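ugh ok fine here u go
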Amino acid sequence: MKSVRMNKAMAADFVRRVIDAVPTVDYEQKIRDEAAKLAVAILPKEIQAIAKNPKLSQFINRRSISLDLDDVWLTVAVLCPSDDKGEEDLKRRIELVVAPIAMKLEEQREQIKDLRAKLRPIVESCSTVKALREALPEFEEFMPGGSIGQTVNLPMVTNLVSDFMKAGLKLKGAAK
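structure:
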């Protein structure tokens, strides 16, 4: 049976599918949720009641605030005081409170970047799908078609598999 030649698009698609399967936490949503809670908490009690009521909250304007959290930039829409000073105070308060979450987000981004950087050269070194299957049998579920027997892995590939497993990716056929 003739093996299919790997091209750049196939290699990129394989890497994307593997990376997309790595479990992640939506830290950006956690930051948005925390920002929304903080914004409501500083409002007068009467306005808080309106903000928490789904039928009435639609009538309250929200403003976008750009947060600068070291290497993480994020825009959140929150209820804000009507003056610029109040908005700046809220922004500083949010940035302080969500800084630990932003650090986790940056760590997660770095982990994904490192995993991609380790996987890509191995994938790009394979000229055929068969060679890719032989190099990375544990990643079979991300490849098109059939299966192969267990192969002896190079240390670089073994380390790659363990790095993905540490990141939470469950690979079929990988030793635990």
